[in-house]
Design brief:
homodimer, globular
């Protein structure tokens, strides 16, 4: 964090209802009410959507990918163009991941040492190197509100030995990330940065490792928030929920909690129920581009022939431009004719659906009725899922 | 035209300056100030743009394709969904072409008789038939403000015999189109339609055939406008200009004149100089998707490496969302990363560029300075074209 930024990352917990929480996270580029869903802008753009769309549907914070932006156009270019907010034309908060998840996904193209990860660019095959220090430096240059620590990510169904090894390395890397981040805050000659660095809690699906990791993070210093990583990476869903349930009892209440990579509606509601405040996923935009729309009655595939002459909106409960303007029949036509507008309109609706979903969850927490609300929502959502 | 529609298609010529004209064409869904550029929505969507985008950049009228909408989703579906305006979510005027241009472009897949054109769908190979009556019926069902007569289109460099033959057929077909259109206006059980049918002037690049075609059209009855077809289809540009120059002296001043298929900036300005009021083309959206942006300094390809770190807007003179929000460096990045948003942002700018260009031409006509304005514009536009 840069000097003078005290208070810029204050998190206020407004209410709890069971494990579920409602709060406000103050970030340099604006307030994020929680629970919050964060759409993913991999290359500095939430696919098919303009920042004006995202503002219109009240998205509060967007995630951008350090790995992708480092490779193309490069953090020097983004910095030279005024930093990520100016680059993307998005003046609300931005969070960057550390690139860890991406480089550890490059099977067979990477070498991991204690120093860092050597890998080849998926774009041009050039050799690259990411370390805790480099990941922090790149994110500093990009200039997001929130940066993530560089962690050692392992597959979802890894064994205990592998999980322990990765966890210990993540812990050592966290200290290096923090040291470098504090140095940058003191010495950087870039335009003033007010950036918070968040640790990532690993430990796979082993409750004791998760608790040990949490202790390590809390021992390493004060933090402005905490991310839960290494979930939603292929493990069975009950295992993910068990980990979150166990963590709910021990996570510090005062910190906002970010569950990484979770974004299907049912998973987001489950995460909120287990005390998570923030989640991100490409699901709404990716599903939208495939023609699948989220609705309270479950996912709907607009390519289905039964929508050919359907005058109804995609989702009668939704207030997005797609649902206010077009019929299902027209949206189906756009997908049949492979028109670009279809990709955009369903992406817009799906992100709006998740933004509204967490806003409704928040209202329920504030009203003390979260359990009933989420039960009713889930019954309706899953009832028609298979139809 | 349906009963009671008197005045709904009034064209008011406000000023002339040389051959160039400024006017207002009143259509059922709104006024079209002329000269006007009409973006093309082939499948009932201007590619990559939403109707809200088109309204924001002040597009006044959109073209949709009868051939494409007949094949998919079918005019019955469009009609059942409330007609083309409701279908597309566009409440301003719409013009539909007759499908003639498309079916005559299907080399080797069509048979032309006096009755009409038998052809195979490019989508599923099914056999289809379009005739003057069918083309008018389909357009009636679609419900555009302006429908086009079904004409016999020939390649741009056809010989005189072929041109004469097509012209005579077009003339006979025009009478059949009109008869059917008048029947529909009297008998249709569809929701009330207020639609005007426009004849298309053919005659290739033979001035005497063009004049003969004009006489035939005027002899066939009263019209609310007149289209010039068969140009911009491969003939040398000087030949197109010679035809327009010759026609400028003989076209009735009281009718709006629509030059079909013209849409590169230099061609639009030349068409306005020769007395045309309306033009359409896919060029702005197609070029935009290729990364080419129209500017007063000539076309710019945003993929060029020199824009990598360019903080300037795409076109400093432009007021569109693209130019108000993003740097050239970011737009280049979107194309390098093959992001959908790039296609949309350059399409939006290019359509706005043409809408602004004709608005500037209109202002010059009203000020009596069109010749000087167009000379200066062209000098600047072509000066840097090769850079």
């Amino acid at each position: 964090m840069s000097p003078g930024a005290a208070g810029a990352f204050a998190f206020t917990l407004e209410a709890t209802d069971g494990h579920a929480r409602a709060g406000v996270w103050r970030l340099p580029h604006g307030d994020v009410t929680t629970p919050c869903f964060m759409p993913v802008g991999t290359h500095g753009t939430v696919r098919a959507l303009a920042p004006s769309d995202l503002a219109a549907i009240d998205a509060r914070i967007v995630l951008a990918n350090t790995y992708h932006l480092h490779l193309r156009p490069g953090e020097d270019v983004v910095s030279g163009l005024g930093g990520l907010h100016a680059f993307m034309g998005w003046q609300r908060p931005i969070l960057t991941d550390s690139g860890g998840f991406q480089v550890f996904s490059l099977e067979g193209m990477r070498t991991v040492t204690e120093e860092g990860v050597r890998f080849r660019s998926h774009i041009d095959g050039s050799e690259r190197f990411l370390s805790p220090e480099r990941a922090v430096e790149i994110q500093w240059a990009l200039g997001a509100d929130v940066a993530m620590a560089f962690d050692h990510v392992i597959p979802g169904r890894s064994g205990r030995a592998e999980a322990e090894d990765a966890l210990e390395r993540t812990q050592r890397w966290l200290v290096r990330c923090r040291t470098r981040h504090e140095e940058l805050a003191r010495t950087s000659r870039l335009a003033p940065r007010t950036q918070s660095l968040l640790p990532i809690l690993q430990g796979a699906t082993f409750p004791d490792l998760r608790r040990q990791a949490l202790q390590g993070i809390l021992d390493a210093g004060e933090w402005r928030g905490l991310a839960v990583g290494g979930l939603s990476v292929g493990e069975p869903k009950p295992e993910m929920r068990a980990v979150l349930e166990d963590l709910a009892a021990v996570l510090p209440a005062a910190l906002p909690r970010y569950l990484m990579g979770v974004g299907f509606p049912e998973d987001v509601v489950a995460a909120v129920a287990l005390g998570m405040d923030l989640a991100d996923c490409v699901a709404p935009t990716r599903m939208g581009r495939n023609g699948t729309a989220f609705t309270d009655g479950g996912p709907v595939n607009i390519r289905n022939a039964r929508f050919r002459t359907d005058r109804a909106p995609l989702d009668a409960d939704c207030d997005c431009e797609t649902c206010r303007t077009f019929s299902r029949g027209y949206l189906r036509h756009l997908f049949a004719a492979e028109e670009l507008l279809g990709l955009r309109l369903l992406s817009l609706h799906n992100v709006r659906y998740l933004v509204r979903l967490v806003a409704r969850a928040r209202d329920a927490v504030l009203a003390g009725s979260f359990a009933a609300w989420s039960r009713e929502w889930l019954a309706r959502y899953t009832h028609r899922e298979s139809s």
